[in-house]
C-alpha cells in the first residue's frame, strides 16, 4: 500500500529528529585549574578527531567554533588541546571560559546534520580571593556561569558554617573576620541535585 506524501515527509522528519540525541552534564572548576570535557560516543573510523567539532556558547549567547573536524580554530589555541579520544582540554581556566561546550559527531558522508550524538557540557568557574586590611580578613567566593545561578555558595571554617558578617547573594559569598580563619573552605552546592564541591584557601599566615 502506497504511503501518502505527507506521511512520508512526517516519517522523514521523525527519523531526522531521532538521529540526533544530546546528553547534558555540568562541570565546575576553580579558576587557574585545568578541565577536560569528553564526548560520550565517538563516530567510528576517525583519524585525529576528523569527525569531531567543539562549539562554545558564552554568556552573551554568541557561539565560537573552537574545534572544526579535529582542527583547533580558537583564537586562544595555547590553552586548548584535543586528546586522542577527542576530549577538549582547557588549561588555566578563566571566568570567560564559563559557558556551554557542545561536542558534535558528524556523519562521514555529509557535514550538514550532526550524527546521532551531541554532548553538551556546562562549565562553571569558581573564583576565590582573600583580602587583608588592617586587622580584618575578607574572603570571597563566586561562581561564574553563563546561565542563571543554580548554585548555593557558603563559607566554612573547620567544617563550621561561618556566620560572622556573612554576605551571600546569588552565586557568591563573602565573609569578614577580625580574628582570621584557621581552615576556610568554600562549599558550592548545586541546586536540584544537592551535589557539593569544596574549594580550599590556605590558612592565614601560610601564604
Automatic annotation (TrEMBL):
Signal sequence interval, chain numbering: 1-22
Residues of the Ig-like domain: 5-104, 108-200
GO CC terms: external side of plasma membrane; membrane raft
SMART domains, per the entry: IG (SM00409)
Keyword Isomerase: no
InterPro entries, sorted: Ig-like_dom (IPR007110), Ig-like_dom_sf (IPR036179), Ig-like_fold (IPR013783), Ig_sub (IPR003599)
Gene3D superfamilies: Immunoglobulins
Keywords linked to the UniProt accession: Signal
Superkingdom as given in the UniProt entry: Eukaryota
Gene Ontology molecular-function annotations: MHC class II protein binding; protein tyrosine kinase binding
GO biological-process terms attached to the record: interleukin-15-mediated signaling pathway; positive regulation of ERK1 and ERK2 cascade; T cell activation
Entry keyword annotation includes tRNA-binding: no
PANTHER family linked: DIVERSE IMMUNOGLOBULIN DOMAIN-CONTAINING PROTEIN 1.1 ISOFORM X1-RELATED, T-CELL SURFACE GLYCOPROTEIN CD4
Protein name: Ig-like domain-containing protein
Organism: Poecilia formosa
Amino acid at each position: 500500500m502506497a504511503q501518502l506524501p505527507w506521511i512520508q515527509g512526517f516519517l522523514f522528519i521523525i527519523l531526522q529528529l531521532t538521529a540526533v540525541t544530546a546528553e547534558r552534564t555540568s562541570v565546575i572548576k576553580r579558576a587557574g585549574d585545568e578541565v577536560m570535557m569528553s564526548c560520550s560516543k565517538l563516530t567510528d573510523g576517525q583519524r585525529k578527531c576528523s569527525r569531531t567539532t567543539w562549539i562554545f556558547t558564552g554568556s552573551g549567547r554568541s557561539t565560537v567554533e573552537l574545534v572544526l573536524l579535529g582542527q583547533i580554530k580558537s583564537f586562544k589555541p595555547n590553552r586548548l588541546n584535543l586528546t586522542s579520544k577527542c576530549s577538549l582540554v582547557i588549561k588555566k581556566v578563566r571566568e570567560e571560559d564559563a559557558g556551554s561546550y557542545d561536542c558534535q559527531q558528524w556523519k562521514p558522508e555529509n557535514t550538514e546534520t550532526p550524527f546521532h550524538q551531541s554532548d553538551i557540557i556546562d562549565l562553571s568557574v569558581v573564583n576565590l580571593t582573600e583580602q587583608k586590611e588592617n586587622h580584618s580578613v575578607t574572603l570571597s567566593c563566586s561562581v561564574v556561569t553563563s546561565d542563571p545561578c543554580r548554585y548555593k555558595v557558603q563559607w566554612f571554617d573547620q567544617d563550621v558554617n561561618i556566620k560572622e558578617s556573612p554576605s551571600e547573594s546569588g552565586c557568591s559569598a563573602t565573609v569578614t573576620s577580625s580574628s582570621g580563619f584557621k581552615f576556610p573552605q568554600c562549599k558550592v552546592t548545586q541546586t536540584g541535585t544537592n551535589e557539593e564541591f569544596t574549594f580550599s584557601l590556605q590558612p592565614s599566615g601560610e601564604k
